[in-house]
Amino acid sequence: MTVPSPASLSTGGTPCRAQPVLPSSHATTAIQPLRAGDAHITGGFWSVRQERNGSAAIRQAYDLLESAGNFRNLRIAAGIETGEATGPIFMDSDIYKWLEAVAFEFGRSPSEDLLVMQREVTTLIAAAQSEDGYLDSVQQIRGGVAGRYTDLPWSHEHYCAGHLFQAAAAPGGGAGGAGPLDGGGERAGRLR
Fold first, then answer.
1. Mean pLDDT of 158-182
2. Mean pLDDT of the region 1-28
3. Nearest residue to 182 (alpha-carbon basis) of 143, 111, 133
């Protein structure tokens, strides 16, 4: 039995063309994604988890990012400290996932101390970002300009950038008017 390719499928003699499926307001049954802030968890298992995440886990993760060397890598890339990069090439991604969690938590339950931590970290990220928009602290420290984008399957440059973009797009990410990563747009422009 031969399985036809999607491009050669037809119904009633009319060829079908594969196209993206997008929600639209004029569809018979339109399913639209919720906007940020339209849904709230008010009780039960997930409410407890959100509360614990907001009250303890995010703050503990900040301390772990410091002790593991993630923030130190940014300080070295920014020229604030000197030394060798710590950890694997994808160390920045943990910082960006933390910022994404902060953004979601700030959107759920605004907190001045989260805002202070967010601003501290985003200021450090901005300082580490190269003038041309490139941002990947471990690569900047270990490979310099010549090492950029030379080993895409293993360098995690795009992987880290993806987490940066997710943090920048997270609901609540513009906490207090200080968007998490204004440099995300510059970084996006550097991807090849």
1. 74
2. 61
3. 133
